[in-house]
Amino acid sequence: MLTTLSLILAAACLIPAGGKLTNHPQMRASAARFGIAWQRYQLIGLAELGAAVGVLAGLLWRPLGLAAGMCLAVLLLAAILTHVRTGDRGRELMPALLILAIDALYLALAFSS
After folding, report:
1. Which of 35, 53, 74, 89 has the most neighbouring CB atoms within 10 Å?
2. Predicted confidence band at 113 (pLDDT cuts at 50, 70, 90)?
3. Considering its fold, how many domains does the chain have in total?
């Protein structure tokens, strides 16, 4: 179960990371809407990529996966706060909320096993 959840969480991190790191126009628009300089927004993509790698590495060494999952939770909480501050509701918040829920489940399973 933890392996499957790790793969899902890593994929959920890689999708937005890919958009940020490949200059996807929708990601550029999001950065502008949030008032974040594009170069700084790309750093979020690097953090998402790092989280994906860390969660997968956690399959081999659990402490690394736990650290990645906890850092991802902080990143997602900041993303939710940023969305709320710009007036986003519902549909715009859903991806961050969903990934945060997956991350919480991942952390619960990783800590308990």
Report:
1. 53
2. confident
3. 1
Structural domain including 79 reads: 2-112
pLDDT digits (tens, 9 = 90+) for 17-68: 999 999 999 999 999 999 999 999 999 999 999 999 999 999 999 999 999 9
Which of 26, 28, 56, 24 lies closest to 41 in space, CA to CA? 28
Query: Rounded CA gap, 62 and 93, in Å?
Result: 29
Residue 7, both tokens: 């793969």
State the sign of the Cα–Cα–Cα–Cα dihedral 45, 54, 13, 35: negative
**Residue 106 structure tokens:** 């991942």
| 30: amino acid identity, one letter | S
Q: Name residue 25's amino acid.
A: P
